Automatic annotation (TrEMBL):
NCBIfam families: pilM (TIGR01175). Gene3D superfamilies: 3.30.1490.300, 3.30.420.40. CDD domains: ASKHA_NBD_PilM. GO terms for biological process: cell division. This is SHS2 domain-containing protein. PANTHER family: CELL DIVISION PROTEIN FTSA-RELATED, ETHANOLAMINE UTILIZATION PROTEIN EUTJ. Residues 5-170 form the SHS2 domain. It comes from Candidatus Gottesmanbacteria bacterium RIFCSPLOWO2_01_FULL_39_12b. InterPro entries: ATPase_NBD, FtsA/MreB, PilM, SHS2_FtsA.
Length: 341
């Protein structure tokens, strides 16, 4: 019998959903869709805002003709602490009892108001050290998202951060790649992450995203937001189009992003001296920026590709050409839909 789950990614610009049926033989995409986010999800602070979001999600899943109510949803990375710590080698039981004290140094909130989750990502018998990935989210935020799911007529069975879901989808879609750099460029920010042997070992958030690109174009050229957005999507980093005006405006932000990526790669080389990162996987709504893949390859010296999360799913050939152009925006949703419950 198949396990059917909705993967729901509530972004600042759009809400993405997929319905995936999983069985021993395959993972089947049953439905996919997205709508514009009706309000700023970073400023949802009352019951009316929650209802507006819940109603929008309800319309989306109804339009998709989704047949289940169980949902796995993501929390915005900008409101969650994700950190990797190094601690002395210890047993699971010892780590469980000490994780609160270890996490306290990295979490700027009262621990009584936070839900902490963790996973051991590396153990070194020579140095007697272990690395632990810690994820901390405000309990109020989790409860808020649970209420929104309920208002949408759904049953929340899991909530996790965007980057964990994104890494899961990329790991499933690119199983032969061992060391992968993930660059997730969303509307309000970007996230850089490293996967080693399909395990997330590093993550960092940056306030660089599509909205900033559009705002810069609007201010520099005196365009309305809609026109600036269209120019960004059409010309991007292509220096041969429109005398390279759009590329010149966006480039400083991209260079800043690449500088942070280079620091991340340097960190990997320092930690794993006999290994290397050879592939960059780009995902997120701003990934389709013209010229971005070429710029990534040229500046970082890595094989670069845009993630297609549908490549690891069984998809009806009739709808595949329809959803493929928007595939990068679904990476987090697919990762959520593939979560083991």
């Amino acid at each position: 019998m198949s396990k059917i789950l909705i993967g729901l990614d509530i972004g600042t610009h759009s809400i993405k959903a997929v319905q995936i049926a999983r069985n021993k033989a395959s993972n089947i995409l049953m439905a996919a869709g997205f709508i514009s986010t009706p309000i700023n999800t970073l400023n949802v602070n009352n019951s009316n805002d929650e209802k507006i979001l819940g109603d929008s999600i309800n319309r989306l899943v109804n339009d998709m003709k989704i047949s289940t109510v169980e949902v796995s949803a993501s929390l915005p990375s900008s409101r969650v602490i994700t950190h990797i710590i190094e601690v002395p080698l210890m047993s699971e039981k010892e780590l469980s009892s000490s994780i609160q004290w270890e996490a306290e140094q990295y979490i700027p909130w009262q621990l009584s108001n936070v839900k902490i989750d963790y996973v051991i990502i590396d153990q070194n018998l020579d140095t007697k050290k272990m690395k632990v990935l810690i994820v901390a989210a405000p309990i109020k935020l989790i409860e808020q998202y649970m209420r929104i799911m309920t208002l949408a007529g759904l049953t929340p069975v899991a909530i996790e951060t965007e980057i964990l879901a994104t890494a899961r989808a990329i790991g499933r879609c690119l199983p032969t790649l061992t060391n992968v750099l993930i660059v997730n460029i969303g509307g309000n920010g970007s996230e850089i992450a490293l996967m080693r042997d399909h395990i997330l070992i590093f993550t960092k958030s940056l306030p660089i995203g599509g909205t900033i690109f559009t705002k810069a174009i609007s201010e520099e050229l005196g365009f309305e937001h809609v026109q600036a957005e269209e120019y960004k999507k059409t010309y991007g980093l292509d220096s041969d189009k429109l005398e390279g005006k759009i590329a010149k405006i966006i480039n400083p932000f991209i260079i800043n992003l690449f500088e942070e990526i280079e620091k991340t790669i340097a960190y990997f080389k320092e930690q794993y001296q006999n290994e290397k990162v050879s592939t960059a996987v780009l995902t997120g709504g701003s990934t389709k920026l013209p010229g971005l893949v070429l710029a990534t390859t040229k500046n970082l010296g890595l094989d670069s590709q845009i993630c297609n999360p549908f490549s690891c799913l069984s998809v009806d050939p009739k709808i595949l050409p329809i959803i493929t152009p928007d595939s990068p925006i679904y990476t987090t949703a697919v990762g959520l839909g593939l979560k083991e419950i």
